Amino acid sequence: MEGVHKMEVIKDYLIFFGVIGGVLVVLIGGYHYLWTVPRTRKRASGMARESALMGFSFEKGLKESPRELFGPYQLFSIPRGSKTMINTIRGELTKGVPFHIFDYGYSMHPDNDVEQTVGVFELDGADLPPFVLSAKAKDRISPKTLRRIGLKMTEMMTGFKKINFPALPSSYDMRSSEQSDQVMRLFGDSLINFFSNNPGWHVEGGGIHLLIYRFDKIVKPQDLRTFVSECREVVDQFTSRP
Length: 242
Prior knowledge:
This protein is an alpha+beta fold. The protein has helices at residues 2-53, 66-70, 143-147, 149-157, 180-186, 189-197, 224-239, and strands at residues 57-61, 86-92, 98-107, 113-122, 128-135, 161-162, 172-176, 202-207, 209-213.
């Protein structure tokens, strides 16, 4: 009898936890379809509308990965990085510089997702040395500080080293896989002054491409025009050099 009673108790526990598990599944699924899906669709619709107003093309998703389109840049080499470009906008700046702007993210672990809007600009005829200019975190210990670890680890694994660059603004770090003098020659007084007055940017360069974004920041549809204008200012610093 005692064995039968224990079996009944175990059965009751299994039923209880089964019900709890089912409720959690329903709640998670409901959250996804009632909040995440509409929010994703709203963002795509807003970005499509704003890009059309600016004369750019829009695609919600591309088959190619950013590594396939642009190459193995640091941002696209993070092990748990996204393989897709979401809400992709294609266009050209007034100086004839083609670009892609898209949402791109990666994950440190399930509770530390990074999502940001990235602009990739193609500079015809350029031969930039590989470099990563990154804005330092304002707080020494914060969720954003921890989320930057993915970028730093990728840089170390691919041979990027911090450059001792006294002229660089204290709000930025510079890393490169090449000799530091090549990057220091690239970043003359004009570029140094520009980034001194414009904190918070992450800029990665190499060959003909510039990757421009603000770490872990998604650009809202209503801010797309401003983001394109700000990126144009950054690009101009590299294309107007003597």
